[in-house]
Design goal:
Distance between the termini: 28 Å
Structural class: mainly alpha
Shape: globular
Largest sheet: none
Number of strands: 0
């Protein structure tokens, strides 16, 4: 569990700098330059991610059950993950109303993904992993919306075509991941 916790601290810590110390971050970027900052941020994030994957894998060897979620939570988790993939796609598809209205769909997608996994998994490592991501996403979204208000962020209006592309791309990505990649990469097949 120590490796998982360390990974979460490193990965989410790096992703929390803007939440906790945005002015310090701006000064570091000014001193280092954007390229060097992005490079350092990427290296730290990759190290944290590797530690999370390794630590989560180690925890599966000796799982600690906290509760046994009912079967219906898996169905709800599938729907929430579909929404998470659509939100993720909306973060990158230009001119969609999802992004225009929500502002930060990727962070909301992380919230949906983490909540889905918290509902459908009852092991200690799951609660730590997905609970940490959910908590981070709540604070990150609040901070991002606060920055938007302070900077009077203006969003590009979306179109129906942009919405359609985001929904179809997200649904297709969800289908590929849910039916094939989740089992191959994670070892759990959501649909049998």
């Amino acid at each position: 569990m120590t490796v998982l916790v360390l990974g979460l601290l490193v990965f989410l810590g790096a992703h929390s700098v803007r939440i906790l110390a945005d002015d310090w971050r701006a000064r570091r970027i000014a001193v280092m330059g954007p390229g060097a900052w992005k490079g350092l941020f990427s290296v730290v994030s990759i190290v944290g991610f590797v530690l999370i994957v390794w630590g989560y894998g180690l925890s599966r060897a000796a799982p600690v059950d906290l509760w046994h979620p009912p079967v219906w939570t898996r169905h709800l988790a599938s729907l929430l993950n579909l929404a998470a993939f659509v939100l993720l796609a909306a973060a990158y598809v230009p001119r969609n109303r999802i992004k225009a209205s929500l502002g930060h769909p990727m962070v909301l997608g992380v919230k949906a993904w983490a909540l889905a996994h918290l509902l459908s998994n009852g092991r200690l490592a799951d609660v730590m992993l997905f609970g940490a991501f959910l908590l981070w996403a709540v604070f990150d979204y609040r901070a991002a919306r606060r920055r938007d208000r302070a900077g009077r962020a203006r969003r590009v209006p979306g179109t129906l075509a942009g919405d359609a592309v985001a929904v179809v791309a997200g649904a297709l990505a969800w289908g590929v991941f849910a039916f094939w990649l989740h089992g191959a990469w994670i070892g759990v097949r959501p649909f049998g």
